[in-house]
Amino acid sequence: MRWIVATLFALSLGGLSLGGLSLAVPAVAAPGLTGEVVLDGRTRAGRPVVVRIAGAVRARSAGTPWATPRGVARDEFVLFDAHPDGQILVVDAESAETGEIESLRLEVRPLPTNVPAVALLDDPPAQVGSPPDPIPGGVRVRAENLPTVAEAWFVFDDVQRVPDGLGSAEVSALAEWRLRAKSPLEPILWEPSPHAWRAMSAIAARAPTLTPDVSRALHILAATLVALILLVARSRKPSPTVRAAWVIVPALLASGWLLIGDRLPGPMRAHSTFMVGDGGGVLVVRVHALRDGAATLLAPGAVPLRWEAGDSATSGLTIGDATTVELEAGSTRLLAFPWSIGSEVTTRASHPPFPAEAEAWTHELGGNAGGDSSSTLIAAPLRARGTRVVAVEGWEFY
Amino acid sequence: MNAAAPERGPWLAPILIVAVGAMAVSRLASPVPAGAGAARLSDPGVLLASFDALWVVLASLPARSSRGALWATLTTALVGLPFHLAIAGAAGAAPEHRAALLLLVAAFAVAGWAGSNGRRVLYAGGLVLLTLALPLAAYALEDLLGVQLRWGLAASPLTGPALLGRAATTTSWTAAIPGAAGALILAGLARWPSRAPEPAV
Predict the structure, then answer these.
(1) Among A128, A274, A286, B4, which is 20 to 30 Å from B197 by CA?
(2) Residue A21: inside a domain, yes or no?
(3) What is the pLDDT of residues A82-138, one digit of tens each?
(4) In sequence order, what are the residues at sequence separation of 6 or more whose Cβ sits closer than 8 angstroms to the Cβ of residue A120?
Protein backbone atom coordinates (compact mmCIF):
# COMPACT_ATOMS: atom_id res chain seq x y z
CA MET A 1 0.00 0.00 0.00
CA ARG A 2 2.83 2.37 0.95
CA TRP A 3 4.51 1.58 -2.32
CA ILE A 4 1.39 2.41 -4.25
CA VAL A 5 0.92 5.70 -2.38
CA ALA A 6 4.60 6.63 -2.86
CA THR A 7 4.47 5.79 -6.57
CA LEU A 8 1.30 7.83 -7.06
CA PHE A 9 2.85 10.75 -5.15
CA ALA A 10 6.00 10.59 -7.24
CA LEU A 11 4.03 10.41 -10.47
CA SER A 12 1.85 13.34 -9.48
CA LEU A 13 4.91 15.40 -8.53
CA GLY A 14 6.57 14.53 -11.81
CA GLY A 15 3.44 15.40 -13.73
CA LEU A 16 3.14 18.72 -11.97
CA SER A 17 6.76 19.60 -12.60
CA LEU A 18 6.49 18.58 -16.26
CA GLY A 19 3.33 20.63 -16.57
CA GLY A 20 5.09 23.58 -15.00
CA LEU A 21 7.98 23.17 -17.37
CA SER A 22 5.74 23.01 -20.34
CA LEU A 23 3.99 26.18 -19.20
CA ALA A 24 7.29 27.92 -18.64
CA VAL A 25 8.70 27.15 -22.12
CA PRO A 26 7.48 29.81 -24.52
CA ALA A 27 5.74 28.63 -27.70
CA VAL A 28 7.91 28.83 -30.77
CA ALA A 29 6.67 31.92 -32.62
CA ALA A 30 5.68 31.43 -36.20
CA PRO A 31 7.77 33.53 -38.56
CA GLY A 32 5.64 36.66 -38.84
CA LEU A 33 5.21 39.04 -41.72
CA THR A 34 7.76 41.76 -42.28
CA GLY A 35 7.42 44.78 -44.44
CA GLU A 36 8.74 48.16 -45.44
CA VAL A 37 7.54 51.33 -47.07
CA VAL A 38 9.14 51.55 -50.51
CA LEU A 39 11.48 54.37 -51.55
CA ASP A 40 13.24 54.33 -48.17
CA GLY A 41 9.99 55.01 -46.34
CA ARG A 42 9.24 58.31 -48.08
CA THR A 43 5.61 59.37 -47.70
CA ARG A 44 3.75 62.54 -48.49
CA ALA A 45 0.37 63.76 -47.26
CA GLY A 46 -2.43 63.12 -49.74
CA ARG A 47 -0.42 60.66 -51.85
CA PRO A 48 -0.65 56.87 -51.76
CA VAL A 49 1.78 54.92 -49.62
CA VAL A 50 3.18 51.76 -51.18
CA VAL A 51 4.29 49.08 -48.76
CA ARG A 52 6.11 45.88 -49.59
CA ILE A 53 5.05 42.85 -47.53
CA ALA A 54 6.05 39.41 -48.72
CA GLY A 55 3.60 36.61 -47.99
CA ALA A 56 0.53 38.80 -47.39
CA VAL A 57 -2.73 38.52 -49.30
CA ARG A 58 -4.11 41.93 -48.33
CA ALA A 59 -3.10 44.92 -46.27
CA ARG A 60 -4.52 48.18 -45.00
CA SER A 61 -3.82 51.01 -42.63
CA ALA A 62 -6.36 52.77 -40.41
CA GLY A 63 -8.95 54.46 -42.64
CA THR A 64 -7.65 53.05 -45.92
CA PRO A 65 -9.40 50.47 -48.08
CA TRP A 66 -7.95 46.98 -48.23
CA ALA A 67 -5.22 46.58 -50.81
CA THR A 68 -4.38 43.35 -52.61
CA PRO A 69 -0.88 42.55 -53.91
CA ARG A 70 0.40 44.18 -57.04
CA GLY A 71 3.76 44.51 -58.74
CA VAL A 72 6.07 41.99 -60.31
CA ALA A 73 6.75 40.06 -57.10
CA ARG A 74 3.09 40.39 -55.95
CA ASP A 75 4.23 41.96 -52.71
CA GLU A 76 3.45 45.67 -53.22
CA PHE A 77 0.32 47.11 -51.65
CA VAL A 78 -0.97 50.58 -52.58
CA LEU A 79 -2.56 52.24 -49.56
CA PHE A 80 -4.72 55.28 -50.33
CA ASP A 81 -5.16 57.98 -47.68
CA ALA A 82 -2.81 56.37 -45.17
CA HIS A 83 -1.88 58.65 -42.29
CA PRO A 84 1.38 57.79 -40.52
CA ASP A 85 1.61 58.61 -36.85
CA GLY A 86 4.82 60.60 -36.81
CA GLN A 87 7.57 58.29 -38.07
CA ILE A 88 5.46 55.11 -37.83
CA LEU A 89 2.78 53.71 -40.10
CA VAL A 90 0.76 50.87 -38.62
CA VAL A 91 -0.32 48.41 -41.30
CA ASP A 92 -2.60 45.42 -40.81
CA ALA A 93 -1.70 42.57 -43.15
CA GLU A 94 -3.33 39.18 -43.64
CA SER A 95 -0.82 36.37 -43.85
CA ALA A 96 -1.25 34.00 -46.79
CA GLU A 97 0.17 31.18 -44.69
CA THR A 98 -1.82 31.47 -41.46
CA GLY A 99 -4.77 33.60 -42.55
CA GLU A 100 -4.28 35.79 -39.49
CA ILE A 101 -4.18 39.56 -39.48
CA GLU A 102 -0.84 40.82 -38.22
CA SER A 103 -0.11 44.39 -37.23
CA LEU A 104 3.16 45.79 -38.59
CA ARG A 105 4.81 49.01 -37.49
CA LEU A 106 6.67 50.39 -40.49
CA GLU A 107 9.11 53.27 -40.32
CA VAL A 108 8.30 56.23 -42.56
CA ARG A 109 10.10 59.45 -43.46
CA PRO A 110 7.44 62.02 -44.37
CA LEU A 111 8.30 64.61 -47.01
CA PRO A 112 7.18 68.22 -46.64
CA THR A 113 4.14 69.15 -48.70
CA ASN A 114 4.95 72.82 -49.22
CA VAL A 115 8.15 72.34 -51.27
CA PRO A 116 8.76 70.21 -54.35
CA ALA A 117 10.42 66.89 -53.64
CA VAL A 118 12.96 65.53 -56.11
CA ALA A 119 14.16 61.95 -55.81
CA LEU A 120 17.86 61.47 -56.44
CA LEU A 121 18.50 57.83 -57.09
CA ASP A 122 21.88 56.98 -55.64
CA ASP A 123 23.96 54.11 -56.85
CA PRO A 124 25.73 52.97 -54.68
CA PRO A 125 23.25 53.55 -51.85
CA ALA A 126 23.61 56.66 -49.72
CA GLN A 127 24.13 56.35 -45.99
CA VAL A 128 21.41 57.67 -43.77
CA GLY A 129 22.53 60.97 -42.31
CA SER A 130 24.77 61.92 -45.23
CA PRO A 131 24.89 65.62 -46.03
CA PRO A 132 21.96 67.03 -47.99
CA ASP A 133 22.23 67.19 -51.72
CA PRO A 134 22.69 70.65 -53.27
CA ILE A 135 19.63 70.23 -55.54
CA PRO A 136 16.70 72.10 -53.89
CA GLY A 137 14.18 69.62 -52.57
CA GLY A 138 16.56 66.79 -53.44
CA VAL A 139 16.00 63.61 -51.49
CA ARG A 140 18.41 60.74 -51.78
CA VAL A 141 16.78 57.39 -52.41
CA ARG A 142 18.57 54.09 -52.64
CA ALA A 143 18.33 52.63 -56.13
CA GLU A 144 17.60 49.21 -54.69
CA ASN A 145 14.31 47.41 -54.40
CA LEU A 146 12.59 50.17 -56.34
CA PRO A 147 8.82 49.85 -56.70
CA THR A 148 7.27 48.26 -59.77
CA VAL A 149 3.95 50.12 -59.47
CA ALA A 150 3.69 53.69 -60.75
CA GLU A 151 1.61 54.86 -57.74
CA ALA A 152 4.68 54.70 -55.48
CA TRP A 153 6.45 57.56 -57.30
CA PHE A 154 3.68 60.09 -56.67
CA VAL A 155 5.35 61.13 -53.40
CA PHE A 156 7.87 62.97 -55.60
CA ASP A 157 7.54 65.79 -58.07
CA ASP A 158 10.57 64.73 -60.06
CA VAL A 159 13.08 61.89 -60.24
CA GLN A 160 16.69 62.46 -61.28
CA ARG A 161 19.92 60.48 -61.59
CA VAL A 162 18.16 57.35 -62.73
CA PRO A 163 20.96 54.78 -62.97
CA ASP A 164 21.35 52.41 -65.87
CA GLY A 165 20.66 48.79 -65.29
CA LEU A 166 17.29 49.07 -63.58
CA GLY A 167 14.89 46.19 -64.15
CA SER A 168 12.32 46.54 -66.89
CA ALA A 169 9.44 46.59 -64.38
CA GLU A 170 11.04 49.43 -62.41
CA VAL A 171 11.74 51.40 -65.59
CA SER A 172 8.21 50.90 -66.87
CA ALA A 173 6.67 52.00 -63.52
CA LEU A 174 8.82 55.11 -63.58
CA ALA A 175 7.88 55.84 -67.20
CA GLU A 176 4.19 55.38 -66.46
CA TRP A 177 4.46 57.75 -63.50
CA ARG A 178 6.22 60.38 -65.64
CA LEU A 179 3.32 60.31 -68.12
CA ARG A 180 0.59 60.35 -65.53
CA ALA A 181 2.08 62.94 -63.20
CA LYS A 182 1.85 65.64 -65.88
CA SER A 183 -1.82 65.13 -66.65
CA PRO A 184 -4.56 67.21 -64.97
CA LEU A 185 -6.70 64.09 -65.34
CA GLU A 186 -4.54 62.07 -62.97
CA PRO A 187 -6.92 61.06 -60.14
CA ILE A 188 -4.17 60.51 -57.57
CA LEU A 189 -3.42 64.23 -57.72
CA TRP A 190 -7.07 65.29 -57.24
CA GLU A 191 -8.19 66.74 -53.95
CA PRO A 192 -11.34 65.29 -52.34
CA SER A 193 -14.26 67.17 -53.85
CA PRO A 194 -18.06 66.92 -54.11
CA HIS A 195 -18.03 68.08 -57.76
CA ALA A 196 -17.04 64.68 -59.14
CA TRP A 197 -19.83 63.05 -57.11
CA ARG A 198 -22.46 65.52 -58.27
CA ALA A 199 -21.33 65.19 -61.88
CA MET A 200 -21.39 61.39 -61.81
CA SER A 201 -24.77 61.40 -60.08
CA ALA A 202 -26.21 63.61 -62.83
CA ILE A 203 -24.64 61.46 -65.54
CA ALA A 204 -25.97 58.24 -64.00
CA ALA A 205 -29.46 59.73 -63.54
CA ARG A 206 -29.92 60.17 -67.27
CA ALA A 207 -27.97 57.09 -68.37
CA PRO A 208 -29.42 53.81 -69.61
CA THR A 209 -29.63 50.92 -67.17
CA LEU A 210 -29.28 48.09 -69.68
CA THR A 211 -26.35 47.62 -72.04
CA PRO A 212 -26.79 47.70 -75.85
CA ASP A 213 -25.94 44.00 -76.28
CA VAL A 214 -28.80 42.93 -73.98
CA SER A 215 -31.17 45.29 -75.78
CA ARG A 216 -30.09 44.03 -79.21
CA ALA A 217 -30.42 40.38 -78.18
CA LEU A 218 -33.90 40.88 -76.75
CA HIS A 219 -35.08 42.78 -79.81
CA ILE A 220 -33.88 39.95 -82.05
CA LEU A 221 -35.66 37.54 -79.71
CA ALA A 222 -38.86 39.62 -79.84
CA ALA A 223 -38.86 39.64 -83.64
CA THR A 224 -38.19 35.89 -83.72
CA LEU A 225 -40.92 35.14 -81.19
CA VAL A 226 -43.52 37.26 -83.00
CA ALA A 227 -42.69 35.53 -86.30
CA LEU A 228 -42.87 32.09 -84.70
CA ILE A 229 -46.10 32.86 -82.83
CA LEU A 230 -47.80 34.07 -86.03
CA LEU A 231 -46.46 31.08 -87.93
CA VAL A 232 -47.61 28.46 -85.45
CA ALA A 233 -50.88 30.31 -84.77
CA ARG A 234 -51.84 29.93 -88.44
CA SER A 235 -50.68 26.35 -88.62
CA ARG A 236 -52.91 23.41 -87.73
CA LYS A 237 -50.50 20.66 -88.65
CA PRO A 238 -48.20 19.99 -85.70
CA SER A 239 -49.58 19.05 -82.33
CA PRO A 240 -50.05 21.77 -79.67
CA THR A 241 -46.95 20.46 -77.89
CA VAL A 242 -44.72 20.93 -80.93
CA ARG A 243 -46.21 24.34 -81.69
CA ALA A 244 -45.63 25.51 -78.10
CA ALA A 245 -42.09 24.14 -78.15
CA TRP A 246 -41.26 26.27 -81.20
CA VAL A 247 -42.04 29.39 -79.15
CA ILE A 248 -41.02 28.31 -75.65
CA VAL A 249 -37.51 27.03 -76.45
CA PRO A 250 -36.11 30.34 -77.78
CA ALA A 251 -37.60 32.17 -74.78
CA LEU A 252 -35.98 29.73 -72.35
CA LEU A 253 -32.63 29.88 -74.16
CA ALA A 254 -32.69 33.69 -74.01
CA SER A 255 -33.49 33.55 -70.28
CA GLY A 256 -30.50 31.28 -69.70
CA TRP A 257 -28.26 33.58 -71.74
CA LEU A 258 -29.34 36.54 -69.59
CA LEU A 259 -28.78 34.75 -66.31
CA ILE A 260 -25.37 33.29 -67.17
CA GLY A 261 -22.45 35.66 -67.55
CA ASP A 262 -23.24 38.84 -65.61
CA ARG A 263 -25.22 40.49 -68.38
CA LEU A 264 -27.59 42.30 -66.01
CA PRO A 265 -26.77 44.94 -63.38
CA GLY A 266 -27.45 42.73 -60.35
CA PRO A 267 -27.46 44.40 -56.93
CA MET A 268 -25.18 47.22 -58.11
CA ARG A 269 -25.86 49.81 -60.75
CA ALA A 270 -22.54 50.81 -62.33
CA HIS A 271 -21.97 53.60 -64.84
CA SER A 272 -18.69 54.71 -66.36
CA THR A 273 -17.72 57.83 -68.23
CA PHE A 274 -14.40 59.26 -69.25
CA MET A 275 -12.48 62.33 -70.26
CA VAL A 276 -9.51 62.40 -72.60
CA GLY A 277 -6.99 65.19 -72.87
CA ASP A 278 -3.61 65.72 -74.50
CA GLY A 279 -1.61 64.00 -71.80
CA GLY A 280 -3.92 61.12 -70.98
CA GLY A 281 -7.36 60.40 -69.71
CA VAL A 282 -9.42 59.11 -66.84
CA LEU A 283 -12.28 56.65 -66.64
CA VAL A 284 -14.60 57.26 -63.71
CA VAL A 285 -16.97 54.56 -62.49
CA ARG A 286 -19.92 55.23 -60.19
CA VAL A 287 -21.16 52.15 -58.35
CA HIS A 288 -24.49 52.46 -56.55
CA ALA A 289 -25.93 49.60 -54.49
CA LEU A 290 -29.66 49.03 -54.99
CA ARG A 291 -29.45 46.29 -52.37
CA ASP A 292 -26.68 44.77 -50.26
CA GLY A 293 -24.14 43.04 -52.45
CA ALA A 294 -20.69 42.86 -53.96
CA ALA A 295 -19.20 43.33 -57.38
CA THR A 296 -15.72 43.25 -58.86
CA LEU A 297 -14.39 45.64 -61.48
CA LEU A 298 -11.78 43.80 -63.52
CA ALA A 299 -9.27 46.59 -64.13
CA PRO A 300 -6.10 47.45 -62.22
CA GLY A 301 -5.08 50.76 -60.72
CA ALA A 302 -8.36 52.06 -59.29
CA VAL A 303 -8.17 55.28 -57.29
CA PRO A 304 -11.03 55.83 -54.83
CA LEU A 305 -12.48 59.34 -54.92
CA ARG A 306 -13.64 61.04 -51.75
CA TRP A 307 -16.33 63.67 -51.20
CA GLU A 308 -14.27 65.25 -48.45
CA ALA A 309 -11.15 64.30 -46.52
CA GLY A 310 -11.73 61.66 -43.88
CA ASP A 311 -15.19 60.57 -45.07
CA SER A 312 -16.27 56.94 -45.35
CA ALA A 313 -16.24 56.87 -49.15
CA THR A 314 -13.58 54.15 -49.27
CA SER A 315 -15.13 51.65 -46.88
CA GLY A 316 -16.11 48.35 -48.47
CA LEU A 317 -13.42 48.62 -51.14
CA THR A 318 -10.59 46.20 -51.84
CA ILE A 319 -8.20 47.61 -54.39
CA GLY A 320 -5.52 45.81 -56.36
CA ASP A 321 -5.33 44.29 -59.83
CA ALA A 322 -9.12 44.18 -59.59
CA THR A 323 -11.39 46.23 -57.35
CA THR A 324 -14.03 44.61 -55.20
CA VAL A 325 -16.89 46.81 -54.04
CA GLU A 326 -18.94 45.49 -51.15
CA LEU A 327 -21.79 47.82 -50.27
CA GLU A 328 -24.97 48.17 -48.28
CA ALA A 329 -28.14 49.21 -50.06
CA GLY A 330 -28.16 52.91 -50.89
CA SER A 331 -24.36 53.38 -50.74
CA THR A 332 -22.34 54.82 -53.60
CA ARG A 333 -18.64 54.67 -54.43
CA LEU A 334 -16.64 56.52 -57.04
CA LEU A 335 -13.54 54.98 -58.58
CA ALA A 336 -11.22 56.53 -61.13
CA PHE A 337 -9.01 54.53 -63.45
CA PRO A 338 -6.06 56.20 -65.19
CA TRP A 339 -6.82 55.63 -68.81
CA SER A 340 -4.39 55.64 -71.70
CA ILE A 341 -5.15 57.36 -74.96
CA GLY A 342 -4.72 54.07 -76.75
CA SER A 343 -7.84 52.66 -75.07
CA GLU A 344 -10.63 51.71 -77.38
CA VAL A 345 -12.94 54.61 -78.24
CA THR A 346 -15.65 54.70 -80.83
CA THR A 347 -17.80 57.60 -81.96
CA ARG A 348 -21.48 57.75 -82.61
CA ALA A 349 -23.81 60.48 -83.75
CA SER A 350 -26.13 62.62 -81.59
CA HIS A 351 -24.24 64.32 -78.83
CA PRO A 352 -26.18 64.62 -75.57
CA PRO A 353 -26.07 67.89 -73.62
CA PHE A 354 -23.15 68.27 -71.27
CA PRO A 355 -24.42 68.26 -67.66
CA ALA A 356 -23.87 71.47 -65.72
CA GLU A 357 -22.60 69.49 -62.74
CA ALA A 358 -19.84 68.02 -64.90
CA GLU A 359 -18.84 71.51 -66.03
CA ALA A 360 -18.20 72.55 -62.43
CA TRP A 361 -16.07 69.44 -62.01
CA THR A 362 -13.94 70.06 -65.11
CA HIS A 363 -13.46 73.71 -64.15
CA GLU A 364 -12.14 72.50 -60.83
CA LEU A 365 -9.64 70.30 -62.71
CA GLY A 366 -8.41 73.39 -64.51
CA GLY A 367 -10.00 72.97 -67.91
CA ASN A 368 -13.16 72.52 -69.93
CA ALA A 369 -14.80 69.48 -71.38
CA GLY A 370 -16.96 69.10 -74.40
CA GLY A 371 -17.35 67.14 -77.55
CA ASP A 372 -17.80 67.40 -81.23
CA SER A 373 -21.44 68.38 -81.79
CA SER A 374 -21.86 65.65 -84.39
CA SER A 375 -20.41 62.71 -82.52
CA THR A 376 -20.11 61.14 -79.09
CA LEU A 377 -17.12 59.27 -77.73
CA ILE A 378 -17.89 55.86 -76.32
CA ALA A 379 -15.25 53.86 -74.45
CA ALA A 380 -15.11 50.09 -74.43
CA PRO A 381 -17.08 49.00 -71.36
CA LEU A 382 -15.19 48.02 -68.24
CA ARG A 383 -15.49 44.30 -67.52
CA ALA A 384 -16.99 43.31 -64.19
CA ARG A 385 -18.24 40.37 -62.16
CA GLY A 386 -21.46 40.63 -60.15
CA THR A 387 -22.67 43.66 -62.07
CA ARG A 388 -22.63 45.16 -65.54
CA VAL A 389 -20.96 48.50 -66.16
CA VAL A 390 -22.96 50.69 -68.51
CA ALA A 391 -20.62 52.85 -70.57
CA VAL A 392 -21.85 56.43 -70.91
CA GLU A 393 -20.59 58.96 -73.43
CA GLY A 394 -17.23 60.62 -72.78
CA TRP A 395 -15.81 64.07 -73.36
CA GLU A 396 -12.68 65.69 -74.60
CA PHE A 397 -10.81 67.67 -71.95
CA TYR A 398 -8.97 70.78 -73.09
CA MET B 1 -64.87 23.24 -91.03
CA ASN B 2 -63.35 20.00 -89.87
CA ALA B 3 -64.38 19.53 -86.23
CA ALA B 4 -61.47 17.15 -85.58
CA ALA B 5 -58.82 19.67 -86.69
CA PRO B 6 -56.55 20.85 -83.88
CA GLU B 7 -57.18 24.29 -82.44
CA ARG B 8 -54.92 27.05 -83.68
CA GLY B 9 -52.32 28.28 -81.21
CA PRO B 10 -52.71 31.43 -79.10
CA TRP B 11 -51.26 34.54 -80.63
CA LEU B 12 -52.67 37.77 -79.23
CA ALA B 13 -51.55 37.45 -75.59
CA PRO B 14 -47.98 36.21 -76.34
CA ILE B 15 -47.47 38.89 -78.99
CA LEU B 16 -48.72 41.57 -76.59
CA ILE B 17 -46.29 40.42 -73.88
CA VAL B 18 -43.36 40.27 -76.30
CA ALA B 19 -44.15 43.70 -77.77
CA VAL B 20 -44.49 45.40 -74.38
CA GLY B 21 -41.36 43.63 -73.10
CA ALA B 22 -39.34 44.75 -76.12
CA MET B 23 -40.56 48.32 -75.68
CA ALA B 24 -39.61 48.31 -72.00
CA VAL B 25 -36.13 46.93 -72.76
CA SER B 26 -35.67 49.53 -75.48
CA ARG B 27 -36.60 52.27 -73.01
CA LEU B 28 -34.14 50.93 -70.41
CA ALA B 29 -31.28 50.75 -72.91
CA SER B 30 -31.75 54.38 -74.01
CA PRO B 31 -30.73 57.57 -72.21
CA VAL B 32 -33.40 58.85 -69.84
CA PRO B 33 -35.41 61.74 -71.40
CA ALA B 34 -35.07 65.18 -69.87
CA GLY B 35 -38.71 65.75 -68.83
CA ALA B 36 -39.74 64.62 -65.36
CA GLY B 37 -42.80 62.68 -66.59
CA ALA B 38 -40.93 60.91 -69.36
CA ALA B 39 -38.10 60.15 -66.96
CA ARG B 40 -40.60 58.61 -64.54
CA LEU B 41 -41.91 56.37 -67.31
CA SER B 42 -38.34 55.20 -67.93
CA ASP B 43 -37.86 54.25 -64.30
CA PRO B 44 -37.02 50.52 -64.09
CA GLY B 45 -39.32 50.07 -61.08
CA VAL B 46 -42.31 51.55 -62.91
CA LEU B 47 -41.60 49.49 -66.04
CA LEU B 48 -41.19 46.33 -63.96
CA ALA B 49 -44.51 46.87 -62.15
CA SER B 50 -46.37 47.56 -65.43
CA PHE B 51 -44.85 44.68 -67.38
CA ASP B 52 -45.33 42.14 -64.60
CA ALA B 53 -48.98 43.17 -64.09
CA LEU B 54 -49.70 42.69 -67.80
CA TRP B 55 -47.82 39.38 -67.83
CA VAL B 56 -49.72 37.90 -64.89
CA VAL B 57 -53.13 39.12 -66.14
CA LEU B 58 -52.55 37.65 -69.60
CA ALA B 59 -51.29 34.38 -68.09
CA SER B 60 -54.54 34.12 -66.10
CA LEU B 61 -56.80 34.44 -69.16
CA PRO B 62 -58.39 31.15 -70.26
CA ALA B 63 -57.53 29.68 -73.66
CA ARG B 64 -60.11 29.74 -76.44
CA SER B 65 -60.85 26.07 -76.05
CA SER B 66 -59.87 23.22 -73.80
CA ARG B 67 -57.88 21.43 -76.55
CA GLY B 68 -54.20 22.33 -76.19
CA ALA B 69 -55.05 24.75 -73.36
CA LEU B 70 -52.06 23.63 -71.29
CA TRP B 71 -49.57 24.47 -74.04
CA ALA B 72 -51.33 27.70 -74.87
CA THR B 73 -51.10 28.79 -71.23
CA LEU B 74 -47.47 27.70 -71.00
CA THR B 75 -46.61 29.67 -74.14
CA THR B 76 -48.22 32.81 -72.77
CA ALA B 77 -46.47 32.39 -69.42
CA LEU B 78 -42.98 31.61 -70.73
CA VAL B 79 -42.53 34.14 -73.54
CA GLY B 80 -42.53 36.90 -70.93
CA LEU B 81 -39.70 35.35 -68.89
CA PRO B 82 -36.61 36.82 -70.68
CA PHE B 83 -38.16 40.28 -70.74
CA HIS B 84 -39.09 40.06 -67.07
CA LEU B 85 -35.53 38.99 -66.22
CA ALA B 86 -34.02 41.94 -68.10
CA ILE B 87 -36.39 44.53 -66.61
CA ALA B 88 -36.05 43.08 -63.11
CA GLY B 89 -32.26 43.09 -63.51
CA ALA B 90 -32.33 46.77 -64.41
CA ALA B 91 -34.48 47.47 -61.35
CA GLY B 92 -32.03 45.62 -59.10
CA ALA B 93 -34.71 43.12 -58.10
CA ALA B 94 -33.72 40.63 -55.42
CA PRO B 95 -33.74 36.88 -56.16
CA GLU B 96 -36.68 36.63 -53.74
CA HIS B 97 -38.66 38.98 -55.97
CA ARG B 98 -37.96 36.68 -58.91
CA ALA B 99 -39.23 33.73 -56.87
CA ALA B 100 -42.35 35.63 -55.77
CA LEU B 101 -43.20 36.74 -59.28
CA LEU B 102 -42.63 33.30 -60.79
CA LEU B 103 -44.88 31.84 -58.11
CA LEU B 104 -47.55 34.38 -59.04
CA VAL B 105 -47.26 33.72 -62.78
CA ALA B 106 -47.33 29.96 -62.24
CA ALA B 107 -50.35 30.18 -59.94
CA PHE B 108 -52.38 32.35 -62.31
CA ALA B 109 -51.31 30.26 -65.33
CA VAL B 110 -52.63 27.16 -63.55
CA ALA B 111 -55.83 29.08 -62.81
CA GLY B 112 -56.05 30.09 -66.49
CA TRP B 113 -55.59 26.49 -67.56
CA ALA B 114 -58.26 25.38 -65.08
CA GLY B 115 -60.53 28.12 -66.43
CA SER B 116 -60.03 26.80 -69.98
CA ASN B 117 -61.11 23.33 -68.95
CA GLY B 118 -63.84 24.12 -66.44
CA ARG B 119 -66.78 26.47 -65.95
CA ARG B 120 -65.58 29.33 -68.08
CA VAL B 121 -68.31 31.82 -67.16
CA LEU B 122 -67.84 31.31 -63.43
CA TYR B 123 -64.09 31.59 -63.89
CA ALA B 124 -64.38 34.77 -65.95
CA GLY B 125 -66.64 36.34 -63.31
CA GLY B 126 -64.20 35.43 -60.55
CA LEU B 127 -61.28 36.78 -62.55
CA VAL B 128 -63.01 40.13 -63.10
CA LEU B 129 -63.81 40.34 -59.40
CA LEU B 130 -60.26 39.48 -58.38
CA THR B 131 -58.58 41.69 -60.98
CA LEU B 132 -60.72 44.81 -60.75
CA ALA B 133 -63.35 44.72 -58.01
CA LEU B 134 -61.17 43.49 -55.15
CA PRO B 135 -58.40 46.10 -55.53
CA LEU B 136 -60.97 48.84 -56.07
CA ALA B 137 -62.83 47.78 -52.93
CA ALA B 138 -59.59 47.53 -50.96
CA TYR B 139 -58.54 50.98 -52.10
CA ALA B 140 -61.95 52.50 -51.33
CA LEU B 141 -62.10 50.93 -47.88
CA GLU B 142 -58.65 52.22 -47.05
CA ASP B 143 -59.31 55.67 -48.44
CA LEU B 144 -62.80 56.18 -47.02
CA LEU B 145 -62.82 54.16 -43.81
CA GLY B 146 -59.12 53.82 -43.08
CA VAL B 147 -59.37 50.02 -43.10
CA GLN B 148 -56.09 48.46 -44.25
CA LEU B 149 -56.79 45.69 -46.75
CA ARG B 150 -53.34 45.20 -48.16
CA TRP B 151 -54.03 41.56 -49.03
CA GLY B 152 -56.90 42.74 -51.22
CA LEU B 153 -54.42 44.56 -53.41
CA ALA B 154 -51.81 41.81 -53.18
CA ALA B 155 -54.24 39.07 -54.26
CA SER B 156 -55.17 40.74 -57.54
CA PRO B 157 -53.25 39.71 -60.68
CA LEU B 158 -53.31 43.38 -61.69
CA THR B 159 -52.13 45.14 -58.52
CA GLY B 160 -50.25 42.25 -56.87
CA PRO B 161 -47.30 42.26 -59.32
CA ALA B 162 -47.27 46.07 -59.21
CA LEU B 163 -46.86 45.97 -55.43
CA LEU B 164 -44.09 43.39 -55.79
CA GLY B 165 -42.35 45.53 -58.41
CA ARG B 166 -42.45 48.61 -56.17
CA ALA B 167 -40.51 46.75 -53.49
CA ALA B 168 -38.42 44.64 -55.88
CA THR B 169 -35.13 45.15 -54.03
CA THR B 170 -36.44 44.12 -50.63
CA THR B 171 -39.45 41.90 -51.22
CA SER B 172 -39.82 38.38 -49.87
CA TRP B 173 -41.30 35.43 -51.74
CA THR B 174 -44.07 35.28 -49.13
CA ALA B 175 -45.48 38.49 -50.62
CA ALA B 176 -46.86 36.30 -53.43
CA ILE B 177 -48.98 34.20 -51.05
CA PRO B 178 -52.18 36.35 -51.28
CA GLY B 179 -51.95 36.27 -55.08
CA ALA B 180 -51.34 32.53 -55.13
CA ALA B 181 -54.31 32.05 -52.80
CA GLY B 182 -56.46 34.19 -55.11
CA ALA B 183 -55.37 32.06 -58.08
CA LEU B 184 -56.20 28.90 -56.14
CA ILE B 185 -59.72 30.19 -55.42
CA LEU B 186 -60.15 31.04 -59.11
CA ALA B 187 -59.04 27.56 -60.12
CA GLY B 188 -61.45 26.12 -57.56
CA LEU B 189 -64.30 28.18 -59.02
CA ALA B 190 -63.54 26.89 -62.50
CA ARG B 191 -63.56 23.30 -61.33
CA TRP B 192 -66.71 23.72 -59.20
CA PRO B 193 -68.93 20.73 -59.98
CA SER B 194 -72.12 21.66 -61.79
CA ARG B 195 -75.32 20.27 -60.35
CA ALA B 196 -76.13 17.01 -62.09
CA PRO B 197 -79.68 16.75 -63.54
CA GLU B 198 -82.03 14.79 -61.28
CA PRO B 199 -82.97 11.42 -62.67
CA ALA B 200 -86.47 11.20 -64.02
CA VAL B 201 -88.77 9.19 -61.85
Answers:
(1) B4
(2) no
(3) 888 889 999 999 999 899 999 999 999 998 888 888 888 875 545 555 555 567 778
(4) A133, A135, A138, A139, A140, A141, A160, A161
A chain contacts of residue B39, beta-carbon cutoff 8 Å: 206
Note the ipTM here: 0.85
In a domain, A57, yes or no: yes
Number of DSSP helices (H) and strands (E) in chain A, helices first? 6, 25
Instruction: Please list the helix, strand and coil fractions of chain A in percent, rounded to the nearest 5, in that order.
Output: 30, 30, 45
Provide the 3-class DSSP secondary structure of residue B109: helix
Domain of residue A325: give its range.
189-208+266-397
Query: Are A238 and A350 members of one domain?
Result: no
Contacts of B6 in chain A (CB under 8 A): 236, 239-240
Specify the range with the lowest mean pLDDT, choosing from A6-10, A153-157, B43-47: A6-10
- Count of domains in chain A? 3
User: With an 8 Å Cβ cutoff, is B3 touching chain A?
Assistant: no
Residue A248 and residue A298 share a domain? no
Amino acid occupying residue A302: A
Query: Is residue A15, in this structure, part of any structural domain at all?
Result: no
A230/A373 same-domain check: no
Contacts of A274 (CB under 8 A, 6+ apart): A281, A282, A283, A284, A339, A377, A379, A394, A395
Same domain for A117 and A43: yes
Q: Do A215 and B75 touch (CB under 8 A)?
A: no
State pTM to two decimals. 0.83
The verdict on residue A6 lying in a domain is: no
Query: Taking a contact as any Cβ pair under 8 Å apart, which residues of chain A between 35 and 64 contact chain B?
Result: none
